[in-house]
Please model this.
Amino acid sequence: MNDDYNASTIPEAGLLESSTVLIDESELVSSGRKAARRKLSNVDKKVVLVRANPEDWSEADRIRVGSPSSLLAIASVLKDSNVPVEIVDFSVLTKDEEVECLNNLASRDDILIVGFSLMSVQIAHCLRIIRKLKERRPDTKIIIGGIHAVLYPEETCQHELVDYVCYADGEEMMVDLVEFLSKKEEGYPTHIPALLYKKNGIVQKNPVGELPEINDLPYSPYELLDLEKYVHRSWHPTDPTHKTRYFDILTGKGCPFRCTFCINALEDFYDREYRGMSAERILDEVEYLMDKHGAQHFKFVDELFFVNRKRLMQFLDLVEERKLKFTWTANIRADYFTRTYVDRKVLQRIKDSGCVFLTMGVESGSQRMLDFMKKDMKVESTIAAAEALAEIGVTGGFSFMYALPGEKNEDVKATFKLIQKLYEIHPDTYIFGPAIFRPYPGNTLYDLCVEKGFPEKKNLDDWDLMGKIDREWGFSEAEDYKWVEKPRELPYLGFYGKLAYIGVQKGTGIVMGNIQRLLAVVAKYRFENDYYGLPIEFFLFKKVMPYLQLLTWTSLSCQNGGKAKYSETM
Ligand code: B12
Ligand code: SF4
Model:
């Protein structure tokens, strides 16, 4: 292995090395072997797996959506066990297609069970789909899995329209459930791990059981998707010239860090353990997708692709050995750019292996706020990351948020100053946000927000916010941000800060770019003087933006919730 630790010239910054979490190689499963999976016979009805649409997604968002990785994982094992399975992804359907698809689903009598993978923003749409299905066919069995079910298993199962809930990995348990339902035996599925069900109206919860070996999972069955709807994407968020044949791959789960706004900080969330595929298994799937589907670009959607350095080095060695030619993007932490982790030499190898874009959650330019959210990161680490990326010539993506409890105006200003600096260091930088922080359930920061008066949602129906979710605030409204002095001004703060400091991002159209340049001077004055009286520029943009958005993606058009946009990059 070519791994010279000391050859670097990378500057050290602050706590860089101490915050890097290395995972022992023994925690990785050995190689790309396939488990001998049991085959079910006589399953004559289908499993339909559904991704509902987040309510705040526009038609423009839909053309950028990644593949439904959780459903693909469940489908891969069902398929391997001879269970007929379909995936219906409402995220890529137009409004008209959606109506037709729903009517079609509700009229079918060949469905054994319908499964949803649920994020909190998808609940409103999911409930509408289930209602329609149950209205037409009350016997349709419904199972809910996904992150919301993991966070709120009992509350989800209590819902009258829900029959089953899976609150951990669902690949193997779904096969057990299909077997149980197909046999039409009396009794309850007491033997199926990670499952909740109702017995005489009372929710029952089975233990999690053993989690499946991640390396043993079959490849994602992309052929179950209407593939052409996903693969024509640019790896750059605003620059369409980087359009390529784009595939999402998940190569590991979990993260050992403890950022208080993230679900991974929950102690009982899979024990915060990282489970990663071997480099060999990853590249076997990469090669398979290149051969079978003509894949050219891969986004490793893991929250932290780089958490295991040994795997990273094996990955780089194998790409070279196999002479593979593809491009890729992944999430990294800014404090990984150190002499002992990703030094210049390793970064050069990363670039040579096809990496074009590295994204990282920076969150804030204020050290006080970084410490508050237990990011375990120094502001200097982000500067060092931008310097390293600039030197090697890889595009950097940095995401930010604001409006956290305890945050002051000067903290937000520090964030924008940092953004300005990142551009100076590395002009080929993309900034996600800064967006208003969305308190998603399942982490300690959310609990703090609730303590401060953020309205808590107690059951699935409380999340049924159809028509009330917007891109600015997510599922909240200004009044919910009790910890902010003038919450109604939050959108202005972000808007004018972006105009003043982010500048015109790559790929922005000429018209839009010139409008932004013109308004930057006014924006700077407003932002620096905290003056947001008569924000006509803001309203003008909001009116004009939807039309301009059709022409191009711009930094200002990406004004959705902080956590939401952030989560795409981490
Ligand atoms: C990859 C990813 C994406 C991908 C793909 C999303 C998808 N699957 O549809 C993309 C980039 C498209 C994406 C987008 C968004 N994401 Co996202 N994403 C992730 C990430 C990093 C990994 C999820 C994943 O695929 N894991 C791999 C699979 C195999 O594992 P899994 O999801 O844990 O699923 C297992 C079990 O939960 C269970 N299971 C899951 N579904 C089902 C269904 C059934 C029927 C059964 C039986 C079991 C089951 O079995 C699975 C296999 O073991 C998570 C972070 C995380 N830790 O989960 C965030 C995360 C899920 N995303 C999040 C958010 C907010 C979003 C967005 C709303 C952001 C936005 N506004 O743009 C969008 C919504 C997109 C959409 N159209 O649905 C939040 C959700 C928070 C919440 N409370 O809901 C998370 C948790 C990030 C975070 N830290 O906050 N995301
Ligand atoms: S924000 Fe990123 S680094 Fe922090 S715990 Fe979540 S996934 Fe890990």
